[in-house]
Amino acid sequence: MYSQQTHRHIETAYPRSSILNKTILDIIELQESEKELIWTSFECSNFSSLGIGDSSWEQLNKENVFKEDPLDNILGMSLDYIHSLCESDLLFNNILDSTFSKVKSLASKDIDIKNSTNISQDQFLSLSGNFLADLPITPNLCSLNVLKTLTAHRITKLSHLTASSEYDIIKNSGMNYESINLIRNIWLAISSINAFLLEINIVRSSSFECMIRGWVTKHTKKERYCEIIMRRMGWKGEIETLEQIGQTYGLTRERIRQMENQMLNALRKQSAQNELKPIDMVIDSLLYDAKGILSIHELGVRLSSVFNWPHVPHEDGLRSLIDFLPSDNYCLEDGYIHYTEHICGGCVGIISFLENYFKSHEEILISDLLHLIENHCNTICNHLDAVSGARFTESFIHYLIDNKNLISFLKIDGDKVIRIDKWNLLKGKLSLVAEQVLKANMRAMHFTEVYNEILQLRQGDINTTVHNVYATLERSPKAILWDTGTFIHIENIKFNFTLIREIENWLFERLNENIPFISSYGAYLNFTDKCIQSGITNELALYSCLRISNDSKLAYPHAPYVFLNIGNVTMPPLPSIIEDFIHDKEGTVSLDEINKFAIGKIFMKNYTVAQILDASSYRNISQLVIR
After folding, report:
1. From the centroid of its chain, how far is CA 422?
2. Residue 85 lies in a domain
3. 458, 474, 492 - which closes a domain
4. What predicted TM-score, i.e. pTM, was given to this entire model?
5. Under 8 Å CB-to-CB from 74, ≥6 apart: which residues?
6. Residues 6 and 109 in one domain
7. Cβ-based burial of 348 (10 A; exposed 0-12, middle 13-18, buried ≥19)
8. Using alpha carbons only, what angle is made at residue 433 by residues 482 and 464, rounded to the nearest 5 degrees?
């Protein structure tokens, strides 16, 4: 009974040299006389001598193994068969440990199973020229249960199978249930992997272009047709236009289109597409290994690594190829390929996690961020991959930021993800960094202070000058003039709306007294204490607050002067204001009267009035002033 079942295992699953097909005595280095002694001794004993607990016997009895059975039966069982009898690692290990202990006592010598030369040292898998070594092991290549076992032991690529043997596993982990189970699953995986290798070798070529050309030429006898479709699909490089190809052959674009359509019809037949199944399986494996999403460029890089191509395929060519694959599992979106039912790219939980993380962090390495996302998903996600070996790649981070509105507050800089405010400081436009410096300091700053901080942030920047910074701040809607040469970020202003409304009403009343405008200096003089209490330290700061409030009754064409809003208000030259005042008097005007008007009513500064009245500069006024 035992030998027939063991024989069936040998024929259907594992190579003859596998430890799975060997008995306990096969793997122990013993003389024939020693083996004979052990057989004779075991014939005189039974299974009850193994010291197995009663609960384990219930399972063994179901497998028709009983306490009174002769113990020599165990010597005729293959390790695979013994393994199949045991539902637990404890039972299997107890059987082996007890059996080895008996053999050791009978042979009167140490038994070193880990270094036994009777265990095969042949590699599990051999790949010619390292071909496909980087291909990940995925559900395309073996069952999900097998894949789980391999992944648990960090066997995730074909190269891991080429670098390991049964001997390595036993030497590193010992002869136990877990080791035998791993070896069993490896051989189960290899049986399907070998079938895949036979298929992939049919389409194997030295380059992407050669591979596709080999496929295309099967469906046309005309070299010109092959060349045209290769160039139109981007399989020789960048996609070429109908006109470009037509010029090569001296044909019209319409004739090239007809030839292209003829080839497309041939290549889109199911029989032609099925020939691409091995390539489809490779792409699916690479995509699965990346949790369902890759950039087209990264897919090309990985395909080149798997197939040992000298050059990465052009992205145009890869996009075109995907449309011809027999499966309908993929979706192309901008520069990315992902599964049609890929849910991670649109996961609200991941987006929310990133938003919360970057509220308290300015930057992080992409590799570290991927690790954080993995941990987050493993903790809360109900759609976990069945196999933990799959990992998000950099493509996923790029996809999230490019396509999910995260670009408004995150940027990628080399191998880092940086919050937008930090990125603006380091890489953004001058206006952005200047605004950010103002915002971060939370106070009014002279433009030279802003300039010096920018230089500290951007060491080695030779393009930014102090004049650039001033001009930038002056134009920025977020940099508010707060004093001569001094600016404050609009979000840092503590705005007292009650006070501003009071000052606006005061200005409106005065402007209705037949005066052209009022300087904010006059308003500041009348409300000095209240302004200071509200953080408004001078008339320019007050003028900026008034402009922000933007009362519809008032106009602000030029600091620091406020006008009634009568539509299309422009700032007249200051000397003309004085001239108009003198003309309106229709007679001689004293300097006293001019000062009362200019300084007392419209609140021009003394030195400004003195400059205007300088006869050498303003002759019209000096002629009008009689005394």
Report:
1. 18
2. yes
3. 492
4. 0.68
5. 24, 42, 47, 50, 82, 95, 99
6. yes
7. exposed
8. 95
Same domain membership, residue 32 and residue 16: yes
- 110 and 190 housed in the same domain: no
Q: In terms of domains, do 482 and 432 share one?
A: yes
> Regarding beta strands 518-519 and 561-564, do their DSSP bridges make them parallel or antiparallel, or are they unpaired?
antiparallel
> Is 87 found in the same domain as 37?
yes
Q: Is residue 318 part of a domain?
A: no
Q: SS3 of 70, please?
A: strand
153 falls within a domain: yes
Number of structural domains in the chain: 5
Residue 145 above 70 pLDDT? yes
Classify residue 585 by burial, with Cβ atoms within 10 Å: 0-12, 13-18, 19+.
Answer: middle
d(CA 402, CA 406): 7
Percent of the chain topping pLDDT 70: 94
Radius of gyration of the chain (CA): 42
- Among 292, 273, 18, residue whose Cα is nearest residue 136: 292
Same domain flag for 20 and 38: yes
DSSP 123: B
Alpha helices in 13-88 (DSSP H): 24-27, 32-43, 54-62, 73-76, 79-85
Instruction: Please report, for the chain, how many H helices and E strands are present, in that order.
Output: 34, 12
Residue pLDDT, tens place only, 387-443: 456 788 999 999 988 876 788 889 998 999 999 888 888 888 899 999 989 999 999
pLDDT at 242 over 50: yes
| DSSP annotation of 34 | H
**Within 10 A of 360 (CB to CB), how many other CB atoms are there?**
7
143, 56 in Cβ contact below 8 A?
no
| Bond into 313 cis (ω within 30) | no
End position of a domain, from candidates 171, 203, 235: 203
List, for residues 296-316, the tens digit of each pLDDT value. Answer: 999 999 999 888 899 999 999
Task: Say what the pLDDT of residue 5 is.
Answer: 36
Domain assignment present for residue 322? The answer is no
Three-state DSSP class for residue 554: strand
- For residue 278, whether the previous peptide bond is cis, meaning omega lies within 30 degrees of 0, is no
**171 is in which domain, residue-wise?**
128-203
Cα 268 from Cα 326, distance rounded (Å): 9
Distance CA 534, CA 496 (A): 6
Query: Which CATH number do you get for residue 473?
Result: 1.10.10
Distance CA 277, CA 368 (A): 36
Residues 322, 206: Cα–Cα separation, whole Å: 20
- CA distance linking residue 79 with residue 92, whole number of Å: 10
Whole-number pLDDT of residue 383: 59
Residue written as tokens 């069945």?
A: 386
The position carrying tokens 């030259």 is 573
**SS3 (DSSP) at 390:** coil
Residue 623: band (very low, low, confident or very high) from pLDDT cuts 50, 70, 90: low
> 10 Å Cβ neighbour count for 559?
16
Residue 100 C-alpha from the chain's centroid: 53
Interval 243-302: pLDDT, tens: 999 999 999 999 999 999 999 999 999 999 999 999 999 999 999 888 889 999 999 999
Same domain, 7 and 107: yes
- Rounded to the nearest angstrom, the gap between the alpha carbon of residue 40 and the centroid of all alpha carbons in its chain is 66
- Identify whether residues 488 and 519 lie together within a single domain: no
Per-residue model confidence (pLDDT) at position 389: 62
